[in-house]
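Title: Prediction job returns without error message
Component: structure pipeline
Severity: low
Priority: P3
Assignee: unassigned

Description:
Job completed but the reporter wants confirmation the result is attached to the right record. Sequence as submitted:
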Amino acid sequence: MEPIFTGVATALVTPFNTKQQVDFPALRRLIKRQVKMHVDALVVLGTTGEISTLTTKERHAIIDCALQTTQGQIPLIFGIGGNDPASIIALGQYVVKASRNYVGKIGIMVTAPYYNKGTPDGIYAYYQTITNAVKLPTIVYNIPSRTGVNITPENMARIAHLPYVAGVKEASGNLAQIGEVVRLCPHTAVYSGDDTLALPCYAVGCRGIISVASNIDVVPVQQIWQLYCAGKPFIALQAFQKAIPFYQSLFRVVNPIPIKAELAQLGLIKNVLRLPLLPIQ
């Protein structure tokens, strides 16, 4: 299936106010800022967006806010992952209904099921059931450090053949595995799910990144991608090496704790998270 995007997509944070409510004025400002910086796509309600702590009502309101604020200017990808297919499908169908008049590209991102870890056949059936029900371009999100289950390259190749699968976000942290997923899924866009591995992932064939760092500034993250694509790998490497300490700082504790602290220092959001996450200064 045609990719939803190539290049840099920002995994957007969900801002909260001091009462732990979703801060919609701040969310709109963050979205407009990303559009102004010409991000290639925006991922809303992902891990960085603390989706697991949001109520269904809040998720619906965030979806509506993102659609209304971007007004079709960029592709929007909504995280709808969980471990209950019925709830995931219901949220996906809300995205379908809410985006009916959206003129830009719309997609969904679905994590591997966590806690009730499936067998390879079970994980395949999970994605088959969700994609057949929602019928939107889907990014399969492999993040074993969060879910406790790794989608192997061989199983990912099976999943990639499903009609609505449009991409893979690979956050296993294993470059050999990521390269194997690219090799076995030649017609499916694979994206780096880790800023610290962005350039090596491009080198093994990834089509871009779903980035945490680009919450701060899209331009330097895009620059590395664009330099690599322009056949300037050594200049891209210099820019990447310069950025690595910052990327590492964003994962010194659990994401999105550090990125929210950085955004708060810029005055863009309040440094507020929902438990079990606690803010750092």
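Comment from assignee: result matches the submitted record. The first helix runs from residue 24 to 36.
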